[in-house]
Design goal:
Layout: H1 3-47, E1 54-59, H2 69-77, E2 83-87, H3 101-111, E3 116-123, H4 131-148, E4 157-161, H5 169-184, E5 193-197, E6 212-219, H6 220-225, H7 230-233, E7 243-248, H8 257-267, E8 272-275, H9 290-298
Helix pairs in contact: 4-5
Transmembrane segments: 21-44
Organism: Penicillium atrosanguineum
Pfam family, one: Spherulin4
C-alpha cells in the first residue's frame, strides 16, 4: 500500500471512529431525553401535596393588641391560600348589637383580605336550643355592617356549632330553617356560607343543609386509630368539597416530613383543614408549628 493510500485509510478510520462517537453521543442524549422527564414527573408526583384546601381557623382568640398577628401574618404571606375564619365574640355575637371595641377594630382588618372568609359563631345545642334565640344570633351578625355604619365590620356566613349527628326529621327541618335564614339575609354579602359542626360524621341527610360540615374534630391519636383519611371515604353521598377536618393535640414529634405527610393526607379528603399541635385551649392561641402548617397548606 502506498503512503498516499495509507493516509486515506487512516482518514477513513478516523471518520468512522468520529461517526461512532457522534452516534453514541446522540444515542445517549436520546436516552437522557426519555429518562429525565420521567424522573421529573416522578419527583413532582412524590412532592405534590394534592388538591388545594382552605385553612380553617376557629378564631376563639380574644383580639387584644397583637393577639391576631400570627393569623394576619400568614394571611398576608400567602395570598394564594384561602382562609375560613370563625369569629366568636361571646359564644355567639354577644348580648349587644355590636361586639366590643377590640373586635370592631380587628375584624375589618381581616375582612380587608381577599383570601379571607369570616363566619360568625352560633351554637345550636344539637338542634335543641330555642330556634328563636339562634335566629336572633344570626340576625345580629347580619346587622353588624348597618349597626356600625362600617361595611367592613361584617361576616360572610355562619358557623353553626353543636349540630346533631343522629337523624331526626325535626332536626333536619331546624337546620334547614337556619340555612334558609342565613342565605336570605343581605348582611352576609352575595354568597352567604354555612358550616355545621357535629364534630363527627353525621347522617348524610344533613349534608345538604350546609356548604361545609366538620366531620372530624378530634385528637391526632383518634385520627390515627380510625385509620386516618380512610374514615372520610366511608361518608356516603359526599365529596371533599363538603367536608372539613379539625385535628388537635398533634405530638411535637410530628414535624417536617411527618407533618407534611399528615397535611397531605387530610387535604386529599377535606376542602377545609385545621391542624394544631396544641393539646389544650387549642382554639384560643396559635401553636409553635402554626406557620409551618400554613406553609404546607400553601404548597
Amino acid at each position: 500500500m502506498s503512503t498516499a493510500e495509507k493516509h486515506v485509510s487512516k482518514r477513513g478510520c478516523l471518520r468512522s471512529r468520529r461517526s461512532r462517537i457522534i452516534l453514541a453521543v446522540v444515542a445517549f442524549i436520546v436516552i437522557l431525553a426519555a429518562i429525565i422527564p420521567a424522573v421529573v414527573v416522578t419527583t413532582l408526583r412524590k412532592n405534590s401535596m394534592g388538591p388545594k384546601s382552605k385553612v380553617f381557623v376557629p378564631l376563639y382568640v380574644y383580639p387584644a393588641p397583637g393577639a391576631w398577628s400570627p393569623l394576619e401574618e400568614v394571611i398576608s404571606a400567602h395570598p394564594n391560600v384561602n382562609f375560613t375564619v370563625v369569629i366568636n365574640p361571646g359564644s355567639g355575637p354577644g348580648p349587644n348589637a355590636l361586639p366590643d371595641a377590640n373586635y370592631t377594630q380587628e375584624i375589618p382588618k381581616l375582612a380587608a383580605h381577599d383570601n379571607v372568609r369570616l363566619l360568625g359563631y352560633v351554637h345550636t345545642t344539637y338542634a335543641t336550643r330555642n330556634i328563636s334565640l339562634v335566629r336572633k344570633d344570626v340576625e345580629t351578625y347580619s346587622a353588624w355592617p348597618t349597626a356600625s355604619s362600617n361595611p367592613d365590620l361584617a361576616v360572610q356566613g355562619i358557623f353553626f356549632d353543636e349540630t346533631p349527628q343522629q337523624y331526626s326529621a325535626n332536626s333536619l327541618a331546624y337546620l334547614q330553617n337556619l340555612t334558609d335564614l342565613t342565605k336570605g339575609l343581605n348582611g352576609f354579602g352575595s354568597v352567604p356560607f354555612v358550616v355545621h359542626n357535629p364534630g363527627g360524621v353525621p347522617d348524610s341527610r344533613y349534608l345538604s343543609t350546609a356548604d361545609s360540615t366538620v366531620v372530624f374534630e378530634e385528637t391526632y391519636g383518634t385520627f390515627q386509630e380510625r385509620h386516618g383519611a380512610k374514615l372520610f371515604t366511608a361518608i356516603p353521598e359526599s365529596n371533599r368539597t363538603q367536608l372539613c377536618a379539625v385535628i388537635h393535640s398533634v405530638p411535637n414529634t410530628v414535624e417536617g416530613s411527618k407533618l407534611r405527610g399528615l397535611v397531605k393526607q387530610v387535604r386529599s379528603v377535606a376542602d377545609e383543614v385545621f391542624i394544631t399541635h396544641l393539646s389544650s385551649d387549642y382554639y384560643a392561641s396559635f401553636g409553635t408549628k402554626w406557620a409551618e402548617f400554613v406553609d404546607l397548606m400553601a404548597a
